[in-house]
Write a structure and sequence with these properties.
The chain is an alpha+beta fold. The protein is built from 7 helices and 2 strands, in the order H-H-H-H-H-E-E-H-H. It has a two-stranded antiparallel sheet.
Length: about 140
């Protein structure tokens, strides 16, 4: 049986997958990646059907997501890092290395806990009846 239509090119043959990984690692959205590649978001979504393209996109996003997770964790726990202080006294510029401490940030703690332990920390509580079913209300009038 003869196939009709244009022969399909492999996405990996026409797209630089290393560039796709790099752009997604740097936080580019699919629309922005499409602009760099000269294609529309719809084309990017079609490219995702190609296993190699999808893997390149996911690998880059995993790298940046991991970095953000690490940063959020550090903000929630508090951290220390080296810092160079610059001083100018009577026209003489001097530098001094110090360790700067950042205390835990409450908002980062709350965000972390709401996402990691939602049953204990979410704002919305669901009230259910027996066995997790709907609540039943019995209304009586008079005595």
């Amino acid at each position: 049986m003869v196939k009709k239509g244009r022969p399909k090119e492999k996405v990996a043959d026409k797209v630089n997958l290393e560039l796709v990984t790099f752009l997604s690692q740097k936080g580019f959205t699919n629309v922005e990646i499409g602009k760099v590649l000269g294609v529309t978001e719809m084309t990017i979504n079609r490219y995702k059907k190609d296993e190699k393209f999808l893997l390149a996109l996911k690998n880059g996003k995993e790298i940046s997501d991991s970095a953000v997770e690490k940063s959020l964790f550090e903000r929630a726990m508090g951290y220390s890092c080296p810092e160079t202080k610059v001083f100018c006294h009577e026209g003489v510029i001097t530098t001094h290395e110090v360790i700067k401490h950042y205390p835990p940030e409450v908002v980062a703690c709350i965000f972390w806990l709401k996402n990691r332990k939602p049953a204990e920390w979410r704002d919305k509580r669901e009230v259910t009846g027996a066995d997790g079913g709907p609540m039943k209300v019995k209304i009586t009038y008079g005595n």
